[in-house]
């Protein structure tokens, strides 16, 4: 997708070597940006999915305890003294590299590091992440300091379920992605669901765009549009009839009250009739 | 200094004057961005500068306005040019917010040593209340409010999560940590480590009414909000009268007096009319992303609404469905003969999970007990 705002932001992220913070509603393709960037640069994508309770050991590194224990037992069985065991089991083969460390020790071309849904992590983790992002250097007490040969390209995404700290915002370039326009969504569906007829595609996008303007609790994103279009193709639908829409509405609208509201609209004949 | 740098600096200054957070680092990035090549058209320039200088979606509108105005007019006269300065907005005149500005100064001297107000002030008792104004709270009561706010916040937040925490005690053995510790004893696990559920972190969103009818309580409730925010990490605070305003950052000050100063500078419609319905609608439009199934929503208002009760009801329903718990603290409930009969209150009540008084410390203690149950 050659959206000029996205293209400019990615260009600047590469040029200024700064992390890019991408915000927008669920399902507008924030994660996709990192994937596209990795493909464009022909490099690896390393993904850190954030969630509540995510901590440094899950994001950075952890010792492989099971393997360490096994090693100790084997040594005991073979009658080795335990003197050098410690140095051995705290060496790199026993280190489990989590996404952040993977991005730092990555060989060759700088990878793309995607920190997905940063708003879901805790504030403490955000602070920790800031530290890592500022110098891409990590100290493992038992081994020493490891720094990145090539700074990874960092993309952060957020659904705004929590306000991010100003410190983080200051460090990042910023990109807000809104729902796509009718024409743009049309071209997305055409490209991603080629099985749908031109007529059907237009109807699908028209209806989704109308629903976004309606007051729904959960507004359908682009991914929902694509799911719905795929479902309709599988069902060999060539037109949006009230029956077809009723059957497949679950792909598009995922909130019980919204569904009820729309069913009423369909029964009253107001859906799916009407242009975009 | 090249013209490009000059213009970028001027633009940053203009944005800063409009209230955006634009640092010198931002200005440097802006120049680097413009020099990076391939920024060849007006649209590209616009997009590049927006990407560098804007930090949140609310700022995009300001940026567009400033950018359009800025590049429509010729460069400023050289006499006006100067280094980057952080120009602060002029301090608000005291008379515009008399209540607030006097709150900042401590009023201990007015205290008569009788401790917390025992009486339940009713809405009709305004004359009597004026003597026992909450504004006469001293440091001691402030500490008490803080303590209560902390306990209430914990009560709201206490729920085990799915994640584990390691420690010396707990219902289950933490194998990983036990083994890690055993290494110092030749791999013999002499000391057991345990794990237990981490408490789930609840978010609190507080929306406080500061309209005219709430004048007597606003100060007290703001102290409560301030204390709440100082206790739990995840608190978002809003105030409204005719307009909704997010005050989380303003309240995040080490000193309460500073927080009040900030509030009186930034919030302009203190003691105005009340439009709860519209303000909640504004919240639902702009800030609903802050509310999820872990969020406890606290509304502090007397429920006097001059707007459409149907709107209030509808917005309350949205909030109830999104949040974990919807708590309405109403200072008027403290009056024994108050009944929530106003149309607005009637429309809102069916969606409220806890409806409780909040007009003095006694009420707050009662609330704490209530939340325990």
Features:
heterodimer; A: 276 residues; alpha/beta; Rossmann fold; 5-stranded parallel sheet; two-stranded antiparallel sheet; 48% helix; 14% strand; elongated; B: Rossmann fold; 3 domains; 15 helices; 45% helix; flat
Describe what this molecule looks like in 3D.
The complex is a heterodimer of chains A (276) and B (373). Chain A has 276 residues and is of the alpha/beta class. Chain A folds into two domains: 4-60 and 98-177, Rossmann fold (3-Layer(aba) Sandwich), CATH 3.40.50; 182-267. Chain A is built from 13 helices and nine strands. Chain A has helices at residues 4-16, 30-41, 56-59, 65-77, 85-89, 99-105, 123-135, 166-171, 182-192, 198-213, 222-234, 242-248, 256-267, and strands at 20-24, 45-49, 61-63, 95-97, 112-116, 137-140, 144-147, 153-158, 173-177. Chain A has a five-stranded parallel β-sheet with strand order 2-5-8-1-9, with helices on both faces. Chain A has a two-stranded antiparallel sheet with strand order 3-4. In chain A, helix 9 packs across helix 10 (198-213). The two termini of chain A are 23 Å apart. Chain B has 373 residues and is α/β, with parallel strands linked by helices. Chain B has three domains: 3-80; 134-156 and 201-372, von Willebrand factor, type A domain (Rossmann fold, 3-Layer(aba) Sandwich); 162-199, no CATH class. Helices cover 45% and strands 12% of the residues of chain B. Chain B has 15 helices and nine strands. Chain B has helices spanning 3-17, 24-35, 42-53, 58-72, 98-104, 126-131, 139-157, 175-182, 215-231, 248-251, 256-266, 276-286, 309-322, 343-348, 361-372; strands at residues 160-167, 172-173, 194-199, 203-209, 235-240, 244-246, 295-300, 325-329, 354-356. Chain B has a six-stranded mixed β-sheet with strand order 6-5-4-7-8-9. A three-stranded antiparallel β-sheet of chain B has the order 1-3-2. In chain B, helix 9 (215-231) links the parallel strand 4 and strand 5. The model of chain B is unreliable at 75-136 (pLDDT under 50). Classes of the chains: A alpha/beta (276), B alpha/beta (373). Chains A and B meet through helix 1, helix 4, helix 8 and strand 9 of A and helix 2, helix 3, strand 1, helix 8 and helix 13 of B.
């Amino acid at each position: 997708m050659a959206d000029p705002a996205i293209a400019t932001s990615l260009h600047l992220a590469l040029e200024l070597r700064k992390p890019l913070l991408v915000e927008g509603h669920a399902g507008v393709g924030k994660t996709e940006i990192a994937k596209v960037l990795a493909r464009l640069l022909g490099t690896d994508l390393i993904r850190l999915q954030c969630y509540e309770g995510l901590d440094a050991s899950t994001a950075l590194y952890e010792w492989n305890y099971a393997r360490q224990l096994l090693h100790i037992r084997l040594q005991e069985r073979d009658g080795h003294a335990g003197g050098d065991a410690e140095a051995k089991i705290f060496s790199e083969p026993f280190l489990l590299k989590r996404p952040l460390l993977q991005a730092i020790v990555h060989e060759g071309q700088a990878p793309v590091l995607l920190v997905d849904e940063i708003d879901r992590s805790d504030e403490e983790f955000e602070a920790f992440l800031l530290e890592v992002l500022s110098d891409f250097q990590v100290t493992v007490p038992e081994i020493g300091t490891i720094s990145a040969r090539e700074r990874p390209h960092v993309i952060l995404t957020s659904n705004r379920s929590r306000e991010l700290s100003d410190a983080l915002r200051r460090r990042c370039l910023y990109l807000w992605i809104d729902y796509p326009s009718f024409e743009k969504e049309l071209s997305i569906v055409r490209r991603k669901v080629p099985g749908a007829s031109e007529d059907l595609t237009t109807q699908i996008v028209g209806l989704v765009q109308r629903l976004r303007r309606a007051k729904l609790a959960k507004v359908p994103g682009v991914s929902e549009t694509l799911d719905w279009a795929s479902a309709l193709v599988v069902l060999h639908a060539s037109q949006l009839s009230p029956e077809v829409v009723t059957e497949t509405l679950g792909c598009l609208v995922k909130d019980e009250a919204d569904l009820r509201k729309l069913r009423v609209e369909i029964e009253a004949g107001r859906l799916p009739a009407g242009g975009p | 200094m090249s013209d490009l740098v000059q213009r970028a600096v001027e633009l940053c200054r203009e944005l800063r004057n409009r209230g955006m957070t634009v640092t010198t680092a931002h200005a440097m990035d802006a120049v680097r961005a413009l020099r990076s090549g391939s920024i060849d058209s007006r649209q590209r320039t616009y997009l590049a500068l927006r990407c560098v200088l804007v930090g949140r979606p609310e700022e995009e509108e300001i940026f567009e306005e400033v950018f359009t105005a800025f590049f429509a007019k010729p460069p400023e006269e050289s006499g006006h040019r100067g280094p980057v300065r952080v120009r602060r907005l002029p301090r608000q005149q005291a008379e515009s917010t008399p209540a607030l500005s006097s709150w900042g100064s401590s009023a201990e001297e007015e205290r008569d040593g009788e401790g917390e107000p025992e009486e339940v002030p009713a809405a009709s008792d305004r004359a009597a209340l004026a003597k026992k104004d909450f504004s006469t709270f001293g440091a001691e009561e402030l500490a008490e409010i803080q303590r209560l706010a902390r306990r209430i916040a914990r009560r709201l937040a206490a729920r085990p999560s799915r994640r584990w925490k390691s420690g010396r005690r707990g219902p289950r053995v933490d194998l990983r940590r036990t083994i890690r510790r055993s290494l110092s004893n030749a791999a013999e696990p002499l000391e057991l480590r345990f794990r237990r559920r981490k408490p789930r972190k609840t978010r609190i969103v507080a929306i406080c009414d500061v309209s005219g009818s709430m004048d007597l309580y606003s100060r007290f409730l703001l102290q409560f909000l301030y204390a709440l925010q100082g206790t739990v990490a995840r608190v978002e605070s809003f105030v409204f009268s005719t307009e909704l305003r997010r005050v989380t950052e303003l309240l995040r000050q080490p000193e309460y007096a500073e927080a009040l100063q900030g509030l009186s500078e930034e919030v302009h419609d203190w003691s105005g009319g009340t439009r709860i319905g519209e303000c909640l609608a504004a919240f639902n439009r702009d800030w609903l992303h802050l509310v999820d199934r872990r969020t406890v929503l606290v509304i502090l208002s007397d429920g006097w609404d001059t707007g459409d009760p149907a709107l209030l009801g509808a917005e309350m329903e949205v909030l109830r469905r999104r949040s974990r718990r919807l708590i309405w603290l109403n200072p008027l409930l403290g009056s024994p003969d108050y009944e929530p009969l106003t149309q607005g209150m009637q429309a809102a009540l069916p969606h409220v999970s806890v409806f409780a008084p909040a007009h003095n410390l006694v009420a707050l203690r009662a609330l704490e007990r209530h939340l325990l149950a």
